[in-house]
Amino acid sequence: MDGTAIFWPMIAHVALVYFVYALVALRRKRAVDAGRAKVSQFRENREEPAESLFVRNNLVNQFELPMLFYACCLALFASGGVGTGVVALAWIFVASRYLHAVIHVTSNRIRYRQPAFIVGFLALGAMWASLAFHIA
After folding, report:
1. What is the 3-state secondary structure of the chain?
2. How far apart are CA 84 and CA 24, in angstroms?
3. Segments forming the whole domain that contains residue 9
4. What angle do CA 44, 14, 84 make, to 5 degrees?
5. What is the pLDDT of residues 16-54, one digit of tens each?
6. Cα 80 → chain centroid
7. Over pLDDT 70: what percentage of the chain?
8. CA 18 to mean position of chain CA atoms
9. Rounded to whole angstroms, how far apart are CA atoms 84 and 118?
10. How far apart are the two ends of the chain, measured CA to CA in Å?
11. Is the CB of residue 120 less than 8 Å from the CB of residue 96?
12. What is the CATH number of the domain that holds 116?
C-alpha cells in the first residue's frame, strides 16, 4: 500500500475543522444580528451565545485527541508503517469525529456523543499500538 494513503483521513479531518470554524462563525453572526450577543463578547470568549456554545466546544475538541491522531499518522508514514489496517483505523477515527461533531453541534446528547468518541478513542489507540508494534 502507498504510504501516502494515510494523508487522506488527515485531509478529511482538516475539512471537518474548517466546517466547524465556519459553523461557529455563522452561529455567532446570527446571534449578533439577532441582538443576543455583541461582537465584543468574543474578544475573550467568556460569554458564548447558547446557539454557538456547542459548536465552540466542538471546535476545541478538534484540537485535543486529533492532535494524537496527526502525530501517529505522521510517525506511521515516516517509519514506513502505513498499511491497509492502519488506514482503515484512521478512517474509522475520522468517521467517529464527524459523527461526534454532528451530535455535538445539534442535540449534544451525551448518550449518543460518548459512544462516537469511544469508537474514535479505541481506533486511535489501535493505531498507536500498531505503530509501537511496527517499530519494535
Report:
1. CCHHHHHHHHHHHHHHHHHHHHHHHHHHHHHHHCCCCCHHHHCCCCCCCHHHHHHHHHHHHCCCHHHHHHHHHHHHHHHCCCCHHHHHHHHHHHHHHHHHHHHHHCCCCHHHHHHHHHHHHHHHHHHHHHHHHHHC
2. 35
3. 3-135
4. 145
5. 999 999 999 999 999 999 999 999 988 888 888 988 999
6. 25
7. 100
8. 10
9. 22
10. 21
11. yes
12. 1.20.120.550
Rg over CA atoms, the chain: 17
Is the C-alpha dihedral spanning 25, 27, 31, 37 positive or negative? Answer: negative
**Dihedral (CA of 122, 124, 127, 131) sign:** negative
> What grid cell was written down for 99?
459523527
Q: What one-letter code names the amino acid at 135?
A: I
Q: Crossing angle, helix 50-61 and helix 7-33, to 10 degrees?
A: 160
Whether pTM > 0.85 for this model: the answer is: yes
Tally of structural domains, the chain: 1
Cell of 11: 485531509
Chain segment 81-92, per-residue pLDDT in tens:
999 999 999 999
